[in-house]
Write a structure and sequence with these properties.
- This protein is an all-alpha fold and 235 residues long.
- 74% of the residues lie in helices and 0% in strands.
- Among the domains are: 69 residues; 74 residues, no CATH class.
């Protein structure tokens, strides 16, 4: 069976290609097809890899959130959340309580001496309660809680039972005023200190000399000249 071929069956340019050229063209198209398939496969793998890592990231984040929620539920509540302060062990005597406070050196420890033995009418308990107040005043002053410190210091300078504590509270008040450049108020405190040292009959000569030395060793340098004059004036 013969099939007539006409010029309309193929483009006119086909006749101009040789067999080798057609083979090369076919091979080029095959290579291009393979490259396209490789690129599409690589893109598919890349998308798959991104999806996997995305799901891993989401799963990790979800696990982190669940862990935080579980931790917040199971964690014991803080005492400070309810305004509670850990209690200090109570000792048998004010002396033991104060010794413990000096070892620990915390605000709550010194406050425990006042809380546990502040209403004890014995002279020994009162002495250690006042010593605890002085240590609290030092702590407050060091932490710039000046108003609280001065309240305790004034209270101690007004008491009459422990003259050494009285002198030490006056020294601290004078130094606090000097730090604020309130030298008129500071000099009032140093004058009261000098009068306490020189005019108090309960002090022995040795105790008097001890207080003189301690005062001059601990007063602010700017207050020493006036204090020495005040000491001479009250003698």
């Amino acid at each position: 069976m013969e099939i007539e071929s006409t010029d309309e069956d193929w483009p006119g340019e086909i006749g101009e290609w040789t067999t080798q050229e057609l083979l090369a063209l076919t091979a080029g198209r095959t290579a291009a097809t393979q490259q396209l398939q490789t690129a599409m496969l690589s893109e598919t793998r890349l998308r798959t890899s991104h999806s996997v890592w995305l799901w891993i990231g989401l799963a990790t984040f979800a696990a982190f959130l669940v862990g935080c929620i579980v931790a917040s539920i199971t964690r014991p509540e803080s005492l400070l959340a309810h305004g509670q302060i850990p209690r200090v062990e109570r000792f048998e005597t004010a002396s033991d309580q104060f010794s413990h406070a000096m070892q620990v050196g915390t605000e709550v420890a010194f406050q425990s001496v006042i809380d546990y033995f502040g209403n004890d009418a014995t002279a020994i308990s009162e002495s250690y309660v006042n010593k605890a107040k002085l240590q609290l005043a030092y702590l407050y002053s060091d932490r710039e809680r000046t108003a609280e410190a001065m309240q305790l210091l004034i209270e101690l300078s007004d008491q009459q039972t422990d003259l050494k504590l009285r002198a030490m509270s006056l020294i601290r008040q004078a130094n606090t005023y000097a730090q604020r450049n309130q030298f008129a108020e500071a000099n009032q405190k140093t004058f009261a200190l000098a009068k306490l040292i020189e005019d108090t009959e309960q002090l022995s000569p040795r105790q008097r000399q001890t207080l003189r030395i301690e005062a001059q060793a601990t007063l602010a340098p700017k207050l020493l000249a006036d204090f020495r004059l005040q000491l001479r004036d009250t003698q």
